[in-house]
Design brief:
heterodimer, A: alpha+beta, Double Stranded RNA Binding Domain, seven-stranded antiparallel beta sheet, 24 strands, elongated, B: 188 residues, alpha/beta, six-stranded mixed beta sheet, two-stranded antiparallel sheet, 5 helices, 8 strands
């Protein structure tokens, strides 16, 4: 992935020492065959098997397979309704597929992201990645520090080489070349005796450039670890919450008991929540009023007023789809909406027992025909609790005696109610859904549903009380998310990409210069050899030719009288 | 491949991977849980100062917590919509009757509610003490800075010096309340 192999074509640049062709970076950093080797055979004993298993797990191939499995495993999470995101949809699915649903539930497909098999995949992937990346990081760090190898004996056998005659003695000629290479920011390694002993047998200099390649590679791997750590930090310190807010309700404070759903990270406590408060002033949904897609939403806008802390100045914002509110480093997203008819229920004693905007849940997202219940516990002695099951239609028409909605906007709102009296069961202390009515302790007040338009009141038979449909408000469902790992993950992602590009485009290349005394007695014969590992894009040939010419020319500039 | 140095690296890596993995697993598979003791009472060794607030009651009166200084205060967070609140209502009404004579003040904080629904609740159950009209959980948010009022109902007991003695998350029992009220009288 991050390395390109030695050119396969051309003469094998093998030298007597074999050193010049030792892998660039001093070790096998080839990603293609995995961090610690993929297919080597297990050695004997349990330790051997463990080692083999570890090598298999940390191989790049395994990581890729796990990544693929993770993507595959996420599919049911987006296709099937999820318990965490939309419990009501799961219930609907159960009702629609009574035979299949329990099986899917056994497989954890209604809660994919918390299922053990899903956890197994990401834990293995995490282990695989860490196990692959950490040792490689050590290796790359070592490679970036390794000096160039000794110059091979026969430079003419390297893929690139040129020879020129120098008027200088070998040591000085090599020094001149070294000065040129050093000026070009090559990392140098000289023959031990070159600088001091003119009579020494060996005069050479090795130069290497393109360490940025290893630096890029290192950056890539470290950033990859950074991404993983960022995700973990997000999981530990972040939280997700849902809150349903009705228009005109007083601002709600972001605190655990005020939230409808709260999914904190492991290290989040209630007092860590951002101290903002928020009220929905007005929600506007626009729908297409003509054409084939009549009734399709065209725009949503939730106008809110918020305070970043209890004492702060209030500010206003329009939350739209994909345009969340950012407050106290949390993001508030608009994820749903619906209608909340306002009801006023009076008990048998004539006193008001219930007056509230009551959120109804859309049963049909096309027409916003919605279901809901009203629970009015009694307040007088001997008085019965009142309960109502309702259907709300924003634009009502009568189709053969049944109430239908023909448009999602509240153009002609109406509610149809079935009344119950008796015992709601709320005083027993057992928690119940605010969207469901437990009618076990209740009796139906009337046979057929009662239709109410805004402002109308239904006087219940037998002096049981009354219910008034006061008006309609809208509600929005807000998702409040805090993910401290998001920004670090983004930064690490960008750095990883930058590192990858560096390691792709920077070539590691070596130039060797070796000088031997000329046979004529004065001066020397200088051979310049060049080698690059990744020459897929070409270009080194030209660079080498230029360098060789420069090295030769530098001498004649420095010593014009001798070169003449 | 597995020279001693290589082995060290492998062991380091494995340990790192396992630690990070376990951390991630713990993160994703569990959720924050409260640390209530066996009897369901959370009591403080070091009592934090209860945050002061000024609010309006369901009937429009001004309520200031610090004006209760010198009295033990039982502060009950409730809502008419919450069945456990309805269930514990008679217990609190009886306790208010009994302990009110001994200088214990009872105060409600009605959350996520409307005054009409709330007054129907207090009328129906026979609760005589005042309740704050707190539809947006503002008092809860303030209190959560010192004590995690993470459930409705939650009942907090504050001692005479304005420090939080302890709390019960969820429906209270008579026994829990008498324990907390007895401990509130013990001056720290």
């Amino acid at each position: 992935m991050t390395d390109v192999h030695t050119p396969a074509s051309g003469p094998e640049p093998v030298t007597e020492q074999g050193e010049a062709t030792q892998p660039f970076g001093g070790g096998d950093t080839g990603a293609a065959d995995g961090g610690t080797g993929g297919t080597s055979q297990p050695s004997q004993g349990n330790a051997g098997w463990l080692r083999w298993g570890w090598r298999q797990l940390t191989s790049m191939r395994t990581a890729l397979i796990l990544l693929f499995l993770l993507a595959l495993g996420s599919i049911p999470g987006s296709v099937l309704p999820q318990q965490g995101a939309d419990p009501a949809a799961v219930q609907q699915y159960y009702a629609a597929h009574p035979a299949l649903a329990p099986w899917l539930n056994h497989l954890g497909l209604f809660n994919v992201f918390a299922a053990p098999w899903f956890a197994a995949i990401y834990l293995l992937l995490f282990t695989s990645l860490v196990g692959c990346v950490v040792p490689r990081t050590f290796k790359l760090a070592g490679a970036a520090r390794t000096p160039p190898p000794r110059a091979p004996r026969n430079l003419a056998r390297l893929p690139h080489s040129s020879t020129y005659a120098s008027a200088l003695p070998p040591g000085a000629a090599v020094e001149g070349a070294a000065a040129v290479l050093g000026g070009q920011r090559f990392r140098l390694r000289r023959s031990e005796a070159a600088a001091t002993d003119q009579g020494s047998a060996e005069h050479w200099v090795s130069a290497e450039k393109g360490y940025l390649r290893e630096a890029g590679n290192l950056l890539f791997h470290l950033s990859l670890l950074g991404v993983l750590v960022s995700i973990a930090v997000g999981g530990l310190f972040g939280y997700k919450a849902d809150k349903l807010v009705v228009e005109g309700q007083p601002a709600f404070a972001d605190t655990v008991s005020a939230l409808d759903e709260f999914h904190p990270g492991r290290l989040v406590s209630g007092s860590d929540l951002a101290p903002f408060s928020l009220a929905l002033n007005k929600f506007t949904a626009s729908y297409l009023t003509s054409g084939e897609s009549r009734g399709q939403p065209s725009d949503f806008n939730a106008n809110v007023t918020y305070r970043s802390s209890p004492g702060a100045k209030p500010a206003s914002y329009n939350i739209r789809i994909n345009d969340p509110l950012s407050v106290d480093s949390v993001k508030v997203y608009l994820i749903g909406h619906g209608y909340a008819p306002v009801f006023k229920v009076t008990g048998a004693d004539g006193k008001v027992d219930y007056q509230e905007a009551t959120p109804f849940i859309p049963a049909n997202t096309g027409t916003f025909l919605s279901d809901g219940v009203v629970k009015a516990p009694s307040s007088g002695t001997g008085e019965a609790d009142l309960g109502f099951m309702g259907v709300f239609v924003p634009t009502a028409i009568k189709v053969g005696g049944t109430l239908e909605s023909i448009f999602p906007a509240a153009d002609n709102p109406a509610v149809s109610l079935i009344g119950y009296s008796g015992n709601l069961g709320m005083n027993s202390g057992v928690s119940q859904s605010v969207y469901q009515l437990d009618t076990t302790g209740m009796t139906k007040i009337s046979g057929s549903p009662h239709l109410l338009l805004p402002g109308q009141t239904w006087q219940l038979p037998g002096g049981k009380g009354s219910i008034t449909f006061v008006g309609v408000k809208q509600w929005v469902s807000l998702a409040i998310t805090y993910d401290p790992g998001q920004m670090p993950a983004l930064v690490c992602g960008i750095l990883a990409l930058a590192g990858l590009l560096l390691s792709f485009f920077v070539r590691r290349r070596r130039v060797f210069v070796r000088a031997v005394p000329a046979e004529t007695g004065t001066g020397s014969v200088v051979t310049v050899g060049g080698l690059t590992r990744s020459d897929a894009s070409g270009g080194f040939e030209e660079e080498f030719a230029e360098l060789a010419a420069e090295i030769a020319a530098a001498e004649s500039v420095k010593h014009p009288e001798e070169g003449a | 491949m597995f020279r001693p140095k290589g082995r060290t690296v492998v062991i380091t890596t494995a340990t790192l991977a396992v630690l990070l993995g376990v951390g991630l697993a713990a993160t994703l598979l569990t959720q924050g849980k409260s640390n209530a003791s066996a009897d369901g009472i959370i009591e403080y060794q070091q009592r934090p100062v209860a945050p002061d607030f000024t609010a309006t009651s369901l009937t429009g009166a001004t309520i200031k917590l610090s004006s209760y200084r010198g009295k033990t205060v039982v502060l009950n967070f409730w809502g008419s919509w919450c069945p456990p609140c309805r269930a514990e209502g008679p217990t609190l009404a009886a306790l208010a009757e009994q302990y009110g004579k001994r200088g214990v003040a009872f105060l409600g904080d009605d959350v996520g509610d409307t005054p009409a629904n709330a007054l129907s609740f207090t009328r129906g159950i026979g609760i005589g003490y005042p309740s704050i009209n707190d539809p947006g959980y503002a008092v809860v948010q303030k209190f959560s800075q010192v004590s995690p009022v993470s459930d409705t109902p939650t009942t907090v007991v504050i001692d005479k010096s304005g420090h939080v003695v302890g709390m019960v998350l969820g429906e209270v029992s008579y026994g829990q309340m008498t324990t907390l009220l007895r401990d509130a009288a013990v001056v720290q």
